[in-house]
């Protein structure tokens, strides 16, 4: 790995980790042009970063990606994914994440990070957590637009009947994550 030569929001770093649910790719970038604090911009069960790029807000989206760069946040993010699959279900919560959208979605993503493993909530319950019991569709929309899977655990939100519902990376992955976390209760 080379030393970090990026200091522009236009360049991102990426790593892919092997997991029991398949390849998991992380993209790390800067929180914005005014700061050099790197954070996870996108992550998910894909084997290349390209499918993740459109999920990143245009103001944060890197115009180029580098693999194999030594970076503390990238290393910590990869280690957190490995730790999660090794049984430390809280490891991803310690990694900085930056996503940009409207105020409701940004708040929803922050609140999602506080939903504990093994304690999934329904979309209606999630809307109540956000202080808007009528905003069930908006809460579901926040989950659907989440770019940083696992680090922002949208998989912990279920349909009102308790079924898994949809998931960008497939319901088998979502069910696997929920099964893994069920022992945390």
UniProtKB/TrEMBL annotation:
Keyword DNA repair appears in the UniProt entry: yes
Molecular function terms from GO: methylated-DNA-[protein]-cysteine S-methyltransferase activity
Superkingdom to which the source organism belongs: Bacteria
Gene3D superfamilies found in the cross-reference section: Winged helix-like DNA-binding domain superfamily/Winged helix DNA-binding domain
InterPro entries: MethylDNA_cys_MeTrfase_AS, MethylDNA_cys_MeTrfase_DNA-bd, MethylDNA_cys_MeTrfase_DNAb, WH-like_DNA-bd_sf
Keywords: DNA damage, DNA repair, Methyltransferase, Transferase
UniProt cross-references to Pfam families, sorted A to Z: DNA_binding_1 (PF01035)
One record GO biological process: methylation
Catalytic activity: a 4-O-methyl-thymidine in DNA + L-cysteinyl-[protein] = a thymidine in DNA + S-methyl-L-cysteinyl-[protein]; a 6-O-methyl-2'-deoxyguanosine in DNA + L-cysteinyl-[protein] = S-methyl-L-cysteinyl-[protein] + a 2'-deoxyguanosine in DNA
Protein name: Methylated-DNA-[protein]-cysteine S-methyltransferase
């Amino acid at each position: 790995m080379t030393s970090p030569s990026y200091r522009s929001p236009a360049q991102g770093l990426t790593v892919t980790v092997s997991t029991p649910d398949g390849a998991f790719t992380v993209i790390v970038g800067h929180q914005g042009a005014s700061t050099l604090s790197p954070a996870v911009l996108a992550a998910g069960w894909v084997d290349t970063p390209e499918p993740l790029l459109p999920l990143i807000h245009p103001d944060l989206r890197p115009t180029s990606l580098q693999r194999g760069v030594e970076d503390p946040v990238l290393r910590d993010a990869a280690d957190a994914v490995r730790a999660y699959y090794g049984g430390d279900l809280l490891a991803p919560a310690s990694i900085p994440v930056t996503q940009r959208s409207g105020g409701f979605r940004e708040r929803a993503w922050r609140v999602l990070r506080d939903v504990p493993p093994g304690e999934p909530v329904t979309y209606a319950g999630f809307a109540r957590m956000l202080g808007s019991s009528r905003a069930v569709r908006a809460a579901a929309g926040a989950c659907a637009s989440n770019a940083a899977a696992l680090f922002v655990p949208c998989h912990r939100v279920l349909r009102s009947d308790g079924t898994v519902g949809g998931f960008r990376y497939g319901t088998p992955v979502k069910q696997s994550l929920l099964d893994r976390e069920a022992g945390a209760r």
